[in-house]
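Quick note —
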Amino acid sequence: MNKLFKVLGPGILFASTAIGVSHLVQSTRAGMLYGYGFLGAIIIINILKYPFFEYGTRYAAGSNESLIDGYKRLGKWAIWSYFMVMIVSLFFVSAAVFQVTAVFMKELFQMEDVGYTFLPLLLIIGSCYLILALGKYKFLDQFIKVVGIAMIICVTVAFIMTFSKDDVITSEQFNAPELWSLSTIPFGIALLGWMPTAVDLSTWNSLWTLEKQKISGYKATVKESTNEFALGYGISAVLAVLFLALGAMLVYGTDTVIISSSAGFANQVINLFTSAIGEWAYYIIAIAAFCIMYGTSIGVLDGYSRALKRTSEVLFFKSKEAGEQWYLCALTITAIGGFSICYFLNGNPQGFLLIVDVATILSFLFAPIVAVLNYQLVVRKEFPEEHRPHLIMRLISLLGITVLSVLSLVYVCYYFGAFN
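Predicted structure written out below.
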C-alpha cells in the first residue's frame, strides 16, 4: 500500500481528465439519442485504444524519458508530425473543455444574467492558469484525486438509484433513430474520437509519470506504473458506460427534446442525475459536475502546456530544459488559444456542440498517426526487451491501428461526399 500511494497519481489524473467532455457530454448524448446502440462501440474502442495510452506510461517508466523525446529518436518526421497534430488539436480541444466547464459554472451559480457574456469562461481559464502557475503539478496531483473520487461516487449512486425507479414511459410517437446510416457517421466519429480521450494525449501520461517520480522521489518500476495507469483507465471506461446508460434509461424513447444550446444541455445533464436521486440533490450534482469539469480544465491546460514546452525544447533547444518561463509561456498560449476559439464561435447558436464535435473529430482523425508512433517506440530494439509489451498487447495494438485508420478513412470519404 505504501508503494501504491507513492505511485498513485498519473493514472488517476488521466481518468479525471478523461471523465469530462467525452463522458458528461458525448456518452450521455449517445444514450439519450440512440439508447444502448453505441454501447458495444464504446467498449471496443476503449479496449483498442488502451495500449496506446499505456505505452506512454510504459515508455516513460522504462526509459526515463517522455514519448516526445522518443518521437525524436524515431526521426525528425515523427517529432514534427506530433508537433503539427498537437498544434492543430490544442486550441479546439482546450476550447471545448473550457466552454463546457464555463457552462456548468453558469448553471451552478445561476450566472445567465451577468453583464459580461464571457465572465464565467474568463474565471475558469484565469483561475486554472493561476493554480498551475503557482501550484504546478503537486497541487494538480492532490486536487484531481479529490475531484475524481467525488464524481465516481456521484455517478455510481445515480446509476444504482436509477435502477430502483420505474421504467420511463415510451412515447407513442417515438421512432427509434437508425443507427447504421450515413447520417450517424459524424456523431459516431465524434463520440469515439474522445473515448475515453484523444490518443495524442498519451504524451501527457509520460510527462506526468516522470513528474510524479520527480516530486515523490520514488522510482517506480514499469509494472507498478502500468498497473496504476490501468486502474485509472478502467475507472474511466466503466464511467463511460454508466453515463451512456443513464442517458438511455432516463431519456431515450421519451418525448424529451435534446437541447443543443450550451446552458440548456448542461441543465439537462444535471437533471438526469436529480431525476434519479431526487430534486434535493440538484446542487450536489451540479457541484460534482462542475468540479469534474474544472479538474478536466486544469488537467488539459497543464497537459497541453507541458507537451508544448517539451516539444519546443526537443525541436528548438536540442532537448535541453528551456526553463520555467517556457512552461508559463506555453500556459499562456494554450489559455489564450482556447478562449479565442470560444470567442469567435460565440455567435453561432450551435457553437457549444460545434466546438465539442470539431475537437473530438480532429482527435479521432489524428489518432492513427500517434498510435503508430507510440507502438514503434515500445517495440523497437533500443527499448529494453523486458519492458516491451507482450504478444496479446501487440496484437490489440495492430488491430487498433487498423480500426482507427479505417474509421478515419470512412469519415474523410463521407465528408467529401464519396458515399452520395
